[in-house]
Amino acid sequence: MNISDIISEHKSEIIALVIGLVITVIIFVFIIGYKKINWIAKELVKMYSAEEKSYLSKKRLESGIAFIIAESGAVAWLIWEHSEMSTTDFVMWLTPQLFVAGWMIKKIEDAKTLNNNQQPNNNG
What we know:
Blueprint: H1 3-9, H2 11-32, H3 34-48, H4 58-81, H5 87-118
Helix pairs in contact: 4-5
């Protein structure tokens, strides 16, 4: 089965997904507001420039994006293959997902602890 067969079989789902994404973006803009989106865009530019310090963490943002992409692919695979999966297959799918999620949280917490320990103590 190639990609064109998958697209032709799931055309209505793909259209619904695109429409849902567009509506989500529109709602996101109205809820968050243009000023906050503008601030986020400026912080992203600062994050990738060497001259200015950004409020955002480049490492956390990139690892978060990579994790979301991987999770999206895994969930899409689960949706398409769930009818053919046994309980063992599901456990084998879920175990690395939860392992990676826990590992990402631990890395972020370790980075926070390391950054807090490196800052000078102003209490005395």
